[in-house]
Amino acid sequence: MSATTTAHPPPIPPVSPPPYEPEGTREPRPPRSAIAPSSQGVPPRRGIQPFNVLLTAAIVAAVLWSGAGTNFSPLTPFQPGNMKSVARLVGGAFPPALDGEFLRTTLRLLVETVQISIAGTALAIVLAIPLSVLASRAGGEEFSRGVAGPAAWSLRWTTYSLARSVLNVLRAVPELVWALIFVVAVGLGPYPGVLALAAHSTGILGKLYAELFEGVDRRAVEGGRATGASELAVLLLVRVPLTLPVLLSYTLFRWECNMRAATVLGFVGAGGLGTQLVISMKLFQYNEVLTLVLVLLGLVVLVDSAGQLIRTRLLEGAGEAALDAAENASLCRPADG
Questions:
Q1: DSSP 18
Q2: Average pLDDT over the chain, rounded to an integer
Q3: What are phi and psi of 79, to 5 degrees?
Q4: pLDDT for 8
Q5: How many domains does the chain have?
Q6: For residue 322, is pLDDT > 70?
Q7: What share of the chain is helix, strand, coil (3-state, %, to 5)?
C-alpha cells in the first residue's frame, strides 16, 4: 500500500509594518493626475478660425484708417517748428508761479472744484436711485402678462422703457456739452458745472444701479416675496443690502471721475480750476499753467488713493452684507394690522 503525499502551499512570509513616520515628516503623495495624466481634460486643438482672421484684419484696417484720417505721425512732434514751440512752453513754465496772490486764487478755485464734484455727485445719486428702480427689469411669474393683467403689464414695461430712455439720453451727452447748455441757461459760475455733472452722472449711475438690482440672486428675492413682503420692502431689505458695497464702490468711483471732470468744465465758464487754466493759457503765463497742473495732479493722486482705500474696505464687507440680506429676507413680513 503506497503512501499518498498531500501538497501543502508554501508558507506566506510575514509582512512587516511600514516604519513609523512622524506627521510632519511624511512626504505628500503626488495627485493621481500627476502620476497618470488623463487626456480627457485637455481641450482639442483648433486651427486658425476664419472669423478670427477677419476680425483681426478689420481691427488693423480700422486703426490704419483712423491714423490716416487724423494725419497721425510719430515724427510730427520732432519737426523743427514744433520743437521750438515745445522749447518755448517748457522754458516759460519754469519756475512755477508761487506768489501769494496767485496761490490764494488757486486754493479758492481748488475748493470750488471739490465742491462742484461733491454737489454734482450727490444730486446725481438722488436722481439715479428712483430712475434705477424704474429701469430695473421686473422678474418673476407674478409680473407676467397672464398674472398681472394686460393693463398693469403694459404700464410696467412702458415705465421701464421710458426710464431706460431717459438714462440713455443723460449718459449719451458728455459733461462738457451739458456744461455749455447750462451756461447758456443759467449763466456762468459753478452752478452750471454742478448741473452738468449731475446730468451725466445720473445716466451712468442709474444704469449701474439698475443692472446691480437686476443681478441680485433670484432665490433671495423670491424668499422675500414668499413672506408676503411688498416690492419696496424687498428692495430695501434684500436688493439694497446685497448690492450695497458694490453700489458704494461705483458711486465713489464716479465721484473720482467727477473730480477730474470738474476741472475741465471751467473751460466753458462753469467754474473750478479750469477757469483760471484757460485764462493763464490765453495770456501765455506758462508758469501759472505749470502751478495749476501740479495742483491738479496732487488733487487727483490724493482722491484716487483715498478712493481706492475706501473701495477696498467696502468690497471686503460684501460677504457680511450678503449674510445680513439673507437674514432680512425672512423678516420682510408685512406689518400686522
A1: P
A2: 78
A3: -70, 150
A4: 52
A5: 1
A6: no
A7: 75, 0, 25
Question: Is position 13 within any domain?
Answer: no
Does residue 142 contact residue 230 with C-beta atoms inside 8 Å? no
- What CATH number has the domain bearing residue 167? 1.10.3720.10
In a domain, residue 154? The reply is yes
State the average pLDDT over residues 138-156: 61
- What is the Cα Rg of the chain in Å? 33
- Phi, psi (5° rounding) for residue 334? -65, 150
Q: How far apart are the C-alpha atoms of 311 and 245, rounded to whole Å?
A: 8
pLDDT of residue 178: 94
- Spatial separation of the C-alpha atoms in residues 136 and 126, rounded to whole Å: 17
**Does 72 fall in a domain?**
no
Instruction: Examine residue 95 and say whether the peptide bond preceding it is cis (omega within 30 degrees of 0).
Output: yes
Question: Which structural domain, as residue segments, surrounds residue 284?
Answer: 93-329
pLDDT value at residue 337: 37
The answer to whether residues 268 and 179 touch, using CB atoms and an 8 Å cutoff, is: yes
Our measurement of the distance from residue 215's CA atom to the centroid of its chain's CA atoms, rounded to an integer in Å, reads: 15
Residue 289 neighbours by CB under 8 Å, 6+ apart: 93, 277, 280, 281
For every residue of 250-272, DSSP letters joined together read HHHHHHHHHHHHHHHHGGGT-SS
Residue 201 is assigned to a structural domain of this protein: yes
pLDDT in tens, 177-223: 999 999 999 988 899 999 999 999 999 999 999 888 887 777 777 77
Grade residue 41 by pLDDT with cuts at 50, 70 and 90. Answer: low
